[in-house]
Specification:
globular, single chain, 8 strands, two-stranded antiparallel sheet, six-stranded antiparallel sheet
Length: about 110
């Protein structure tokens, strides 16, 4: 569902969430492509295909943890959704799946 320019998943299951990512990526001609982006001064790899969406934060301090050269921050598959928003006390990333849908749908990022 979209309200203004904000996506809301409500209580949808993983398959519905993945379908929404696929719809957005397909509509922009981005399906099956990998992009390096910058959002809120952080760099990410993002990609979506028929099987999964992923966002991977790139470690700007390579070799200085918490992940080398980075770590997954959002993964959506047909039967699984993971995002770091629920463990934000341990990581600097606080984006949830709704946030990623909004960032991508509204192109609120810089393409690198």
């Amino acid at each position: 569902m979209i309200s203004g320019d904000r996506w809301y998943l409500r209580e949808n299951g993983p398959c519905d969430v993945l379908r929404k990512f696929i719809e957005i990526f397909h509509g922009k001609g981005w399906l099956n492509k990998k992009f390096r982006i910058k959002y809120q001064n952080k760099r990410y790899w993002i990609s979506c295909n028929e099987e999964r969406f992923f966002a991977y934060e790139i470690n700007d301090n390579c070799g200085l943890g918490p992940g080398v050269p980075g770590w997954p921050v959002c993964l959506v598959e047909k039967d699984y959704v993971y995002d770091e928003s629920e463990i934000s006390a341990l990581t600097p990333t606080k984006l949830n799946t709704d946030d990623w849908l909004n960032i991508i749908a509204n192109q609120k990022f810089e393409l690198l």
